[in-house]
């Protein structure tokens, strides 16, 4: 039996990376998927790839910080698939700087995408889930939200806020049989953590090799996590296997927090 047979899932930030791994895994387990990304081309390409492989999917370009975008994404999902059973708030971003060099615009931008986006997307699916007395809301925290990190006070604040929001919302929605949980990825191998080419564009995604190698050395498993490692935890939280679990945080970090 497939774990998500007949379920409908919205996965934000699922055009690429960890979110795409989730979309592929959830679809293989029977869910219809709303693929969301702020990049319309990436979003459409992932949805088309899922459909080509025989899965149910729609593409929905949306900025999770914009009320009208989120509302339309939920409405489009209901129009296409009839309901929403699962929301995975995966969309997120980092912009690092030491706090004394960080302006308010940068700090607020990270809070908006990582925390406000999670709150706003949750707000629009809750009425649907409450009406049928069932739902799974899965949020993305981070080990940074649990332990902090130099140059990431904005990100730590946002992800710490996600953890608090998860626990508060779990209490609010318990009587409605809606489970709210979150996972905290550690160092996961994506385009954001790839090693930059020496002498490359300083503004390009990725990180210097020295910083990358130091991060790996701090992981007891001795390797970066893979997007699929995170996707499997999200699947657990989204399936009937976790029906009596709510308000919890699981670190997906290869022992980084041990």
Can you give a write-up of this model?
This protein is of the alpha/beta class. The protein folds into two domains: 8-188 and 225-252, 3-Layer(aba) Sandwich (Rossmann fold), CATH 3.40.50; 191-224, no CATH class. The protein is built from eight helices and seven strands. A seven-stranded parallel β-sheet has the order 3-2-1-4-5-6-7, sandwiched between helices. Helix 4 links the parallel strand 4 (86-89) and strand 5 (135-140). Helix 4 runs parallel beside helix 6 (153-173). The longest helix is centred in the middle third of the chain and has 29 residues, at 104-132. The radius of gyration is 18 Å and the shape is globular.
| Helix/strand structural class | alpha/beta
CATH H-tier superfamily of the largest domain? NAD(P)-binding Rossmann-like Domain
Q: How many domains, in number, for the residues? A: 2
Spatial strand order of the main sheet: 3-2-1-4-5-6-7
The first-level CATH class name of the largest domain: Alpha Beta
Main beta sheet: strand number and arrangement?
7 strands, parallel
CA(first)-CA(last) distance: 35 Å
Number of helices: 8
Radius of gyration over alpha carbons? Answer: 18 Å
């Amino acid at each position: 039996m497939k774990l998500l047979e007949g379920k409908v899932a919205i996965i934000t930030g699922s055009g690429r990376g960890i979110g795409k791994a989730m979309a592929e895994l959830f679809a293989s387990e029977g869910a219809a998927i709303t693929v969301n990304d702020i990049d319309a081309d990436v979003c459409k390409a992932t949805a088309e790839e899922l459909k080509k492989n025989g899965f149910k999917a729609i593409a929905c370009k949306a900025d999770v910080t914009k009320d009208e975008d989120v509302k339309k994404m939920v409405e489009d999902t209901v129009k296409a698939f009839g309901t929403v059973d699962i929301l995975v708030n995966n969309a997120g971003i980092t912009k690092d700087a030491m706090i004394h060099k960080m302006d308010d615009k940068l700090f607020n931008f990270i809070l908006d995408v990582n925390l406000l986006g999670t709150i706003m997307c949750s707000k629009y699916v809750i009425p649907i889930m409450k009406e049928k007395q069932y739902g799974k809301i899965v949020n993305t925290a981070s080990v940074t939200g649990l332990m902090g990190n130099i140059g990431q006070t904005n990100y730590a604040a946002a992800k710490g806020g996600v953890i608090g929001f998860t626990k508060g919302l779990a209490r609010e929605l318990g009587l409605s049989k809606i489970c709210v949980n979150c996972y905290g990825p550690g160092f996961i191998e994506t385009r954001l953590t790839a090693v930059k080419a020496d002498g490359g564009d300083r503004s390009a995604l990725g990180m210097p090799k020295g910083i990358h190698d130091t991060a790996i050395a701090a992981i007891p498993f001795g390797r970066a996590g893979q997007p699929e490692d995170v996707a499997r935890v999200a699947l657990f939280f989204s399936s009937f296997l976790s029906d009596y679990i709510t308000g919890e945080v699981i670190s997906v970090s290869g022992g980084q927090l041990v």
